[in-house]
Amino acid sequence: MAKRFSNTQLPVSCVGHNSDVYQLAFSKVCESGYYLASACRDGKVMLRHGDTGDWVGTFQQNGQPILSVDINADATRLASGGDDCVARIWDAVDGKQLTKMVLNSTVRCVALSSKSDYLAVGCLDRKTGHRTDKVLYMYALERAESPMSFAGQARGVRDVIFCRDDRAMLSSSHDRSIRLWDRISGKQVHSISLPHHAKSLELCADGRTVSIAYGHSVVFVDVDRFEVLRHHKLPIRLIGVSLHPEKKTHVCAGSNRWIYKCDYATGEVLETFYAHERHMHCIKYSPDGEVYASSAADGGLRLWQQTVGKKYALWDARILSIEEGDDEQGDADDDDEGNDDGNGDDEYEDEDGDDDDDDDAVNYDGNGDDRRGAVSVGGGVGVGVGISIDVSGDGGEGGAGGDCDGNNGSDCDDVEEYGNEEGECEEYYEEEDAYEDGVAGSDDADAQSYSYA
Asked: Residue 98 maps to which CATH number?
């Protein structure tokens, strides 16, 4: 069926990836501009100029899926993690691997502190017999010491960020919780319980506003006071949300492959357009707020203008019109293959379990210090649910863990396996399946109840 792109938006399409682009991360604005890192199922992390999409370099080790990436403020350090149960720190200028942390589970998320002296690592839960492992760790990168572990999640960790001037961390889990941790003591300080697990977790440029997407909802939380600031509802199941640095608007990635730009104060939808041919995984605002980037399951990575028609980077001042096809947005919960929901939590290709992968045989293909890169940018045409907040600080029980045995968790009791159209083995968390069946949580926009313990 023919699909349409925005009749005003003309995206910049960044080529290079050939499979699911799970995660995006922008640096801050530095002397040479700002940069965009992307993590892909094809085993590559790519670094680009964030405003133009021009390629800078590619980080690759053993070809196993990379699920998460983060980049520090001045784009000199990059962290990645994925299916090989290893978190890595890279020199983002010359492409050298600086260090690696070997874990017992798939690395689902990584986060660098603002000074790049700490690394937070969240893992998917794995069970082996009666043994369980913690699934959230913090490494002191400038000291040779064992990582600090954080107990409390009942399921695997999906996202983690540093907050409160790096004195705390905020994590989201497949147990449908958001937890605030004290970095020094390792204790849980606050928690939020959601009816569905959070699909995205992001700290705004102000350093205190956190945006959370789950179900059909977007919630903004003041992480210093740990209070809900706003709660907006959309008529579509969401994959992710990102808040403009000046808190003017927020952009949402929908499960129907459309992007929705909304007013931050009121939640009113200001602009919406069809963005990708396959389901989306991530959406992020640039640090200057001039563009936002989206990624999808077909390797697509696109840059979109905040102000259409403004002269910026590769866009000129003309408002370009693109020929339209089908005007319908489609089913509000339309996924590509029925169970493709674009969450990046589950669809990992089953590897052969070879233990002989050469972790140190990393490969960097890039331009090094000149930071200009070769232009490899496609021309780009076409392209109220109740929340309970616990402030008691009760950490609860530890999460599930286990060995990384190359089978991507086939021993895990917490997942169900489905075959996709290519016959691959894909893992879907049970709460995600329950949501697909319409039995988990409430979608009543008026059913908002914020309770503080």
From this structure: 2.130.10.10
